[in-house]
Amino acid sequence: MSISVIVPTLLRPLTHGEKNVSVEGNSVAEAIDNLESRFPGIKARLISDDRVHRFVNIYVNEDDIRFADGLDTPIKAGDSLTVLPAVAGG
């Protein structure tokens, strides 16, 4: 099942400048694995030790996966996966 991944500006060099890419998967983890197979190096920027980096937020549609099942959050055709780097101010 194809889902849309919205790629933040900081990661677009890894997706050859593409802002929106399509990948397959039944969970967020599967989608990221498939993203990695197309764009090597992107997974390391999102995940370490099987957890999302603390400075990265991932949403399925408008739901933060931290408040769902994390990387095991299910996805279905037509869903949108949004990757947002956390922003800190001071």
From TrEMBL:
Protein name stated in the entry: Molybdopterin synthase sulfur carrier subunit
SUPFAM superfamilies (alphabetical): MoaD/ThiS
InterPro entries with a match to the protein in the record: Beta-grasp_dom_sf (IPR012675), Mopterin_synth/thiamin_S_b (IPR016155), Sulfur_Carrier/Prot_Modifier (IPR052045), ThiS/MoaD-like (IPR003749)
Species name: Stutzerimonas kirkiae
Coiled-coil segments: none
